[in-house]
Amino acid sequence: MKEKQLELLRRPRRLRATRQVRSLVAETRLDIADLICPLFVHEKESKEEIPSMPGIYRYSLESLLEECALLNEKGINAVALFPCVPREKKDNFGSYALNPEGIIPRAVEAIKKEVSDLLVITDVALDPYTLHGHDGLWNEKIKDVDNDATVEILVQMAVMLAQKGADFVAPSDMMDGRVGAIRKALDSEGLSKTSILAYSAKFASAFYGPFRDAVGSGKQKGIYLDKKTYQLNPSNSREACLEAMLDEKEGADILMVKPAGPYLDIIHRIRQKTLLPLAAYQVSGEYASIIAAGLKGWIDPKQAALESLLAIKRAGADIIITYFAGSLARDPFFNF
Ligand code: PBG
To answer: What pathway or pathways are given for this protein in its record (predicted)?
Structure first.
């Protein structure tokens, strides 16, 4: 005698019954090859952990090379470098950003020599190098960052980094017209093989806090810097698309949305509008929130990390910059 049951033609749970069938019908998959690992580098002799980002370090040149070799061996294709510059090397113009003997150019050269397969992405913005912490030149008269004067410097910075061997330059400053100006300068210097990863839709976000601690562009009088005259308003989706379309027209090779998790709708929307590869940056505050709740025992941080990354891919990102890349590369039980 059959037990009483509903007459259902469709029982979606059939396809969720076992790990195998769930895997078979999975619509989105994470792959280590999609991840870019951000790495901080400083001029000290050894690596030190960043207090607001447990598990993430500021590397010395030597320890950076070891980390790059390991990441490369585990299948990571690319790293994105960020400097932590001592205060005495900063000034109001970010001059150290243009020094070809600076920590980032030296790191690029060393990685391209020792771990030549690994793609190296260098940030193009002045905030780690300026005393005030803005991404560009501060003009006291207009009480704002000067767009065109900043672009001139960013162009020089991009050319210098490309000459040192960077595979990608990644302008993260949100100045108008910088992608086009950088593309033009690279090409006229015979650097047409250097790609541009454009931080196209970068929002004025509270989730950058731990990063600013990491690069020491921190707070002024206890308050994080206000970058609202150049970074996007979190309320604006159309404007984010406009920024992406401009970067595409100006010659960007890859577009990027940042942060990622709180902006899945923006990722989705830009994905519909471009044929270019789309990246998303899961930023320091997104990482730190998951790790901190995990340390408190309030969530399972590994599962939360995977879920957050899966959501970013499902929204339409092909590539994800994430501070979880190192753990994912190391831990086979993290299991994609
Ligand atoms: C600035 C820059 C920031 C990040 C990368 N490049 C912070 C900011 O705009 O203040 C943040 C990345 C992160 O939070 O992980 N050029």
So the answer is: Porphyrin-containing compound metabolism; protoporphyrin-IX biosynthesis; coproporphyrinogen-III from 5-aminolevulinate: step 1/4
